[in-house]
Specification:
single chain; Aminopeptidase
């Protein structure tokens, strides 16, 4: 583990974290095609997103010395009831701290929380490109492959940003047993106390 990923605490996000999380996310909107969002959301909108996510799913932050270094969260894969056991996941790390191990810490904590909820499938929607450029490389695909995801589909030239057409892939990791009589999932707040967030030390 790199020194950047030592002494890091993973905890549940709070709406009060919105400004700090937005400071991490904004450069991805302005400078990259990692997100297909065009405009940086307001702090109020970001607060609403955090609050809405926490009504059902985990929203986690990685923190060191009271500074937030990255965050991860899950949301519905699809709104219809039959998809309740699948989620879409997102992870963002301060761009100055990429490849430091923080993304893995966040992913592991997110996966652990989702397992306790009874989630079975983690899905990631990832921008990708056949030709890397200053706005997009394929590091996210490589990261998810390393985390145990498999490629399940690719959409071609479906995202337009910075005068460039980008592809998108879906990747999936199955984290639970699929049963005939599947128990209902639990809300994150109902299992949060069962999660032992830990500090990740050198």
């Amino acid at each position: 583990m790199s020194s950047a990923a030592s002494n890091i605490h993973i905890r549940t996000a709070s709406p009060d974290d919105a400004a700090a999380l937005l400071a991490i996310y904004a450069p991805y909107v302005r400078e990259t095609a990692i997100t297909f969002e065009y405009e940086v959301p307001s702090t109020e909108e970001f607060t609403r997103r955090i609050t809405h996510t926490l009504e059902k799913y985990p929203y986690l932050v990685a923190e060191k010395d009271h500074t937030i270094l990255g965050y991860a969260y899950a949301g519905p894969f699809h709104e219809r009831a039959a998809y309740d056991w699948a989620v879409e996941t997102s992870i963002y790390v301060d761009q100055n701290l990429k490849h430091s191990g923080i993304g893995r810490l966040l992913h592991d904590a997110l996966e652990n929380a989702l397992k306790k909820q009874g989630i079975l499938n983690m899905n990631a929607c990832i921008a990708c490109t056949p030709t890397e450029d200053p706005h997009l490389n394929n590091n996210s695909v490589e990261f998810h492959t390393h985390m145990g995801y498999r490629l399940v589909g690719e959409f071609y030239q479906c995202g337009y940003k910075f005068l460039t057409w980008y592809n998108m892939v879906w990747m999936e990791k199955q984290i639970g047993e699929h049963l005939t009589d599947q128990p209902e999932i639990r809300k994150f707040r109902d299992i949060e106390s069962d999660i032992c967030y830990r500090k990740f030390m050198k």
